[in-house]
Design a protein that fits this description.
Layout lengths: L1 H13 L2 H17 L5 H10 L3 H154 L4 H25 L7 H23 L4 H18 L1 H4 L18 H9 L5 H26 L2 H19 L3 H14 L12
Helix pairs in contact: 6-10, 6-11, 6-12, 7-10, 10-11, 11-12
Length: 399
């Protein structure tokens, strides 16, 4: 033990502190790597005292090994540091060399992408503009269709209201006509009863003078007829001859042809024909005695132009019961109802302003016909007063 301590003391005197630390590390590493020495072999050398020269050689060898190891370690560290610096420098140099190219490439790619994006944007904007235009057209078309539907609805509603009013007026007129007819019948019955009573009284008083009374009665009846005719004319009643009825019928037909031409200028020809046929059907229902079988052809079908058979109407009027005044009034009423229905349909199918234009043009043409001679002037006055509907004339249009 003393020799070992001495060797360590000697070694410590020869080595520096750094070398001693390295020596200790080296011995520990060697002990870990090599197997433990046998104590029998060391013991004799320790007992013999050893050699100081051997110890110095070991120290020298150890120092050399430590130096080599340190040198190798320093070289490795230096090499690593140099390689690291070289790698950093090379990376910086390479980065500096390729960075402009990369930047240019990236800028070029970004430019291409930007252009592509702008093209897409322009395309999208064009599509949006096109869709907006189509949508605007669609909305305008829908609005136009809606407005037309609303206008058509309002027009139909107005037409329905007009038709209802006309039907109401017709109902009132029919009711008034029935009331007037009932009053006339009642008045006639009273007059007939009175006349019968008077006749009975006369017969009772004049039984012995039958022949004389018969002559007086005949003269009395003639005077009474003259008086009734005079009173009727004073009251405004009109009696026209058969030939005058014929002239008025022909004038009526000519006027209706002109009316059809004027209405065709504002409505379809087929619609005008339908109006003329329906109007004469309605008038026939109101005036069956005058217009019976006068509105159909020889096959029993309605005339397509809405005309009437003149000979049939004259025959129907002649076959009517009652006096000539009544026949004349019924004749006028039948023609006026036909005319009135057609004027109403003209206004319903167009508007009030158009109807007024049609009537003005019609009356202007008829006026020239009436002015040809005095006879036509007289027929014209009858036509305007009794056949042309009052509702379709403005004040002051009489001839």
């Amino acid at each position: 033990m003393e020799n070992k301590n001495e060797i360590q003391a000697e070694n410590s005197a020869v080595l520096t502190e750094e070398e001693e630390a390295l020596l200790r590390e080296f011995e520990e590493e060697r002990r870990e790597k090599s197997p433990a020495p046998e104590p029998q072999k060391e013991e004799p050398s320790r007992q013999n005292g050893g050699s100081s020269k051997a110890t110095e050689a070991d120290v020298t060898e150890l120092r050399r090994l430590i130096e080599e190891e340190m040198r190798a370690k320093i070289e490795n560290e230096l090499r690593s540091k140099i390689e690291l610096e070289l790698r950093v420098d090379m990376a910086d140099r390479i980065r500096a060399e390729i960075e402009p190219d990369i930047r240019k490439q990236v800028e070029a790619e970004m430019r291409v992408k930007y252009e592509d994006i702008m093209k897409d944007v322009e395309k999208v904007e064009a599509d949006v503009a096109l869709r907006e235009k189509e949508m605007r057209k669609k909305i305008e078309a829908e609005l136009e269709a809606r407005i037309r539907r609303d206008l058509e609805f309002e027009r139909n509603k107005k037409q329905e209201e007009i038709i209802k009013k006309l039907e109401m007026i017709e109902g009132i007129e029919a009711k008034n006509a029935r009331l007037q007819e009932e009053e006339i019948k009642k008045s006639l019955k009273e007059e007939m009863k009175k006349e019968i009573e008077e006749e009975r009284e006369k017969k009772k008083a004049e039984l012995l003078k039958k022949l004389e009374n018969s002559q007086k009665s005949a003269m009395s009846e003639q005077l009474q007829k003259e008086k009734v005719r005079t009173d009727t004319r004073k009251q405004g009643a009109v009696v026209i001859a058969h030939s005058e009825k014929l002239v008025l019928l022909r004038l009526f037909e000519e006027t209706q042809k002109v009316l059809m031409e004027l209405m065709t200028a504002y409505m379809a020809a087929k619609k005008v024909e339908t109006i003329f046929v329906k109007s004469i059907e309605k008038a026939e229902k109101k005036n069956p005695d005058v217009l019976k079988k006068a509105t159909v052809d020889k096959d029993g079908k309605n005339r397509h132009d809405g005309s009437v058979e003149v000979a049939r109407i004259l025959s129907n009027v002649n076959a009517l019961s009652g006096g000539e005044e009544k026949k004349t009034l019924m004749f006028f009423k039948a023609l006026q109802d036909i005319f009135d229905e057609r004027i109403i349909e003209a206004e319903t199918g167009t508007d009030l302003e158009t109807k007024d234009k049609i009537m003005s043009a019609l009356l202007a043409k008829v006026d020239r016909v009436f002015a040809k001679s005095e006879f036509n002037r007289k027929m014209g006055n009858y036509f305007m007063e009794y056949i042309v509907p009052n509702t379709s004339m403005t004040s002051g249009e009489n001839i």
